Amino acid sequence: MSTASSYRRALLNPQFDEHPKVLEERRIPLSFANPYGARLSEYEQVLLYNQPNPDWIAGGLGVGGWSLSFPGGRGTWENYFTEAKTSDWYVFRDPEGRWQRPYVAEKADGWREFQRLVATAASRRLHRSLDPEWTSQILTGHLGALGLHDYGLFMALAAPIRDCLVDTLRAAVVTSSLDFLDNAQLIQAEKLYLAQVSDDATADVSPSKALWHDDGTWRGARKLIEEIWGETYDHIEILFAIHVIHEPLFGRFVRERFFIEQAGLHGDFITPRVLWSSVRGAEAAYGWAAELFGKTLGADPTFNDYNKRLMRFWAEKWLPLELAALHDVKRLWSATETLKRSADHRPTSDQVLQRIIEDWRGKYGVLFDCDADFDTLARI
Amino acid sequence: MAIADLAKFDVKVAAQDIHRCLQDLGWNFDKRRSKYPSKYRFNPATREQFKLIVGEYCQMEEEKDERQYGSLADSLARLEAGKRVEPRWAETMKFVSNFLEMGEYASIAGSALLYDAVESPEQRNGYLAQVEDEVRHTNQLGYLKKYFASQYHDPAGFTDARRHRTGNPLFMSNRQQACEAFVSGDPVLVSLNLQMVAEACFTNPLVVAMTQLAAANGDEITPTVFLSIQSDELRHMANGYQTIVSVVDDPDNMQYLQTDLENAFWIQHRGFTPMVGRAFEYGAVNRGEPWAKTWDRWVYEDWGGIWLGRFSRFGLKSPRNLADAKLDAYWGQHDAFATMYALWPLVGCRIELPNKRDQAWFENHYPGWYDSIGKVFEGWDKAGMADPANRTLPVEWLTQHGKHIAMCRVCQSPTLKLTPLRAGAVETKENPTGCDLRILDYRGRRHAFCSQWCERMFLTEPERYTSENFFEIFDGWDLADIVRASGGLRSDGKTLVAQPHLSAERMWTIDDLAACRIRVRNPLTAGASFEKY
Fold it and tell me: Which of A291, B195, B231, B507 is deepest in the core (most CB within 10 A)?
């Protein structure tokens, strides 16, 4: 008798040269699922309905309950994990349809691009144009503080990855979490590069950590992140605080309008390229956050009004913290002599911020009919 | 310019240099506490072994993805690999791929729970890589099912599996062991379940040994996917090792660790051992060595001896229940197959009873097989249970012979026992199966347990095991109604996805099943698991 160890393996298995009669014509992996586009995408086929919810979690296919709880009785996945409500969690999609393969390929390319960047920059001695003060104060110190900020956001997303109630959202949050850790690591990578080419730079984390913990510039941001990471248990509220409030305001203000935009003023051609992946990550997150808060929750046929009220309630909590963080970080706009000298020739930090807030109202505020008065909130 | 200056600009930013800074990225603050509390205290200085940063990790995975998806989409597609698989094996893969996909999916959440819980930034980094690995594996399993569905002559069961598993009583045990135990509980217990036992112990036979068997049965798809998955598992085993390292320095932690290891091992064993053994021995046409031997080598010797031997310096010992598990690895898969065959309308794939050649193999490797469970299979065959014209189901035989299936409240395993009893065990009126069944009354409900090990877990923390099991949820339901409700019908709207044979002829329809008039009962209150009405 042949066994696996004695059986002569034939790759083409000639016994099956003639194929058996087809018993079922329907070959679509999820015949019951509603596709996001014209037909079920590969992303949906390899991900959707993996979350094994019972039917009392909206959209769940199963019956009964979970077999296991945490000590004390907290359930495996429960509706009470969030105040948000929907008729069907499974309508959520990342509009970019990023499953593991395309996501990892994009990140791998980002890492290769970074290697090409530093090799080219070093070969062409681009660091010669670097403003020493920008290098020693901003890049060695404050850029690293931004890395710690991103590390905190990475940590704050652990609970949403654990707790969220649908597979497609879980996968989207994982990409965001990896993006933030990657941002922190790429910032550290830039510091390692700078330390090799400039006597004004150090790769040491401690100057950045000192700023992050003790400097007023980052006080508000740190308070906000610690509030999300340590104190906030509603996983949808965490996603709201990060991807509807904080990143679109603070992230844009600091990453794009300060580090990326002001770097050129200081002869820095590297930082904008390094931070670009974080901007790309924020844009990808905008896509799925708008889908989650604008459609899955904000346009739910039953709970849309409730969810919008909930989001406005959340915004009342988070916007004052956000504005305090923005207020504190404005100090960066006068952190170098070059910035002070050129202040008359460029928009003030308040003008920049005003533009960002206007953009925010158009892209994010509309998701939940936000009518927040930022001037009043700033005074709270 | 001096040569030294030139050299200065030959810069390298190595991933390892970035990783060396990781420990400094974390910080603590007054309000910092994990959202998943632990009775253990973690050492914040714990290191990780693989030291990957995100970019480097993604580069490595991209390469593995290109090889695996490239093979599947090109050479294996042109060779029509999905059409050359032994049908018995392909049907088994419907169950196995669904089981494993569930486990991989839950591990995304479990690994995130762990990175929230621990204090060391390096450890968090290792767990985060595992989070993305588990997304990868979930997608790979989804792709494997989609791939089989696109080529194999009977895609039903590879398709829509995430729906009709909801009516599958065997899925309940799968969900408990490879899903809920990975996401709910003390983080160290989660790590023990996921990394220390499931990944370090059971993925070796499931994911590695199975590839040889798959290839022997004409399946070149599964090895391509499974070996790519397994290439990530080593890092997960290392994560499990580091979890232990992060708690052993604190003497207070050690009072819990041995018991938690035993509990995790038992839960994982009850899920894996019978299921994998059933797949190996009843799903293969061309078999390898007996499952009992495979289990002995991978679980008893490699894991229980060598792997756990590494932890002896921390005071950790092999679980006491390893010996009981070893008995299960001899007979458990046969009872598991009997259970699966008895419940065939609900299991989401086509299965067949052992033929004469199979019977000879079983008796040769498991003396006593024929006189116990083999005769039952032969009886089911003679009664024509595979033929819808006879309109009879194996569960009727179980009820007639007082062999009731109960579900363990803790591990959710079915408790049917048709193989030889353990020495000294006897069949009684209360325990007609003669297995290690125990029954307790607690808060107005009756609870069955497969063993003293599950009973102990329940008695320690009864609030953790309060849900309804399959027989309670579906008490009073006709089997046909369960099939309808869980989408267990093919595209013609009448033929069942599951079948008790592999033939293209005489397939069961929902009308055939409904004509059997069998409904589910809660055996702990009704005295039988199924009744004809």
Answer: B195
Looking at residue B299, the DSSP 8-state letter turns out to be: I
Residue A26 CB-density burial (10 A; 0-12 exposed, 13-18 middle, 19+ buried): middle
Could you tell me if A65 and B467 are in contact, meaning their C-beta atoms sit under 8 angstroms apart? yes
> CA A113 → CA A237, A270, A306, A343, distances in Å?
34, 12, 45, 33
Nearest to B154 among A12, A16, A24 (CB): A24
Helix or strand or coil: residue B439? strand
Asked whether residue A12 carries a pLDDT value surpassing 80, the answer given is no
Count Cβ atoms below 10 Å from residue B459 Cβ, excluding itself. 12
Are B458 and B466 in contact by the 8 Å Cβ rule? The answer is: no
| Chain A interface mutation, best of B16, B17, B19, B21, highest count of A Cβ atoms under 10 Å | B21
* B312 Cβ contact list (under 8 Å, min separation 6): none
Amino acid at B457: M
Higher-confidence position of A31 and B2: A31
Q: Which among A114, A176, A146 has a CA at the least distance from the CA of A253? A: A146
Residue B160 lies in a domain: yes
| Helix, strand, or coil (residue B441) | strand
Q: How many domains does chain B have?
A: 1
Residue A271 counted as domain residue? yes
Mean pLDDT of chain B: 94
Query: How many angstroms from the chain centroid is the CA of residue A172?
Result: 9
The total number of structural domains in chain A stands at 1
Cβ neighbours around B434 below 10 Å, total: 17
pLDDT digits (tens, 9 = 90+) for A279-325: 999 999 999 999 999 999 999 999 999 999 999 999 999 999 999 99
Across the interface, whether the CB atoms of A69 and B465 are under 8 A apart is answered yes
List the CATH number of the domain containing B63.
Answer: 1.10.620.20
For chain A, say whether B58 makes contact (Cβ under 8 Å): yes
* CATH number, residue A227: 1.10.620.20
Size of interface A-B (CB pairs under 8 A): 332
Q: How far apart are the first and last CA of chain A?
A: 82
Alpha-carbon span B211 to B273, nearest angstrom: 17
Tokens of A223: 């308070």
The reply to whether A39 touches chain B by the CB within 8 Å rule is no
Picking from A171, A162, A168, the residue whose alpha carbon sits closest to that of residue B190 is: A162
Tens-digit pLDDT profile for residues B3-20: 445 555 678 899 999 999
Q: Please indicate, yes or no, if residue B332 is contained in any of the structural domains.
A: no
Which residues of B are annotated as catalytic? 104, 134, 137, 199, 233, 236
Q: How far apart are CA B68 and CA B308, in angstroms?
A: 32
Residue A54 lies in a domain: no
Domain that holds residue B33: 1-248
Q: Using CA atoms, how far apart are residues A374 and B453, in angstroms rounded to an integer?
A: 60
Write out the H or E segment, with its range, that includes residue A5.
none
Q: Is residue A79 part of a domain?
A: no
Residue in B121, B132, B215 closest to A100 by CB: B132
- pLDDT tens-place string over residues B175-227: 999 999 999 999 999 999 999 999 999 988 988 889 999 999 999 999 999 99
Which amino acid would we find at residue B67? Answer: R
For residue A194, the enclosing domain spans 96-379
Return residues 151-180 of B near A (CB < 8 Å). Answer: 153-156, 158-160, 162-163, 165-166, 172, 175-176, 179-180
Residues of B in contact with A230 (CB under 8 A): 29, 31-33
Nearest chain B residue (CA) to A187: B18
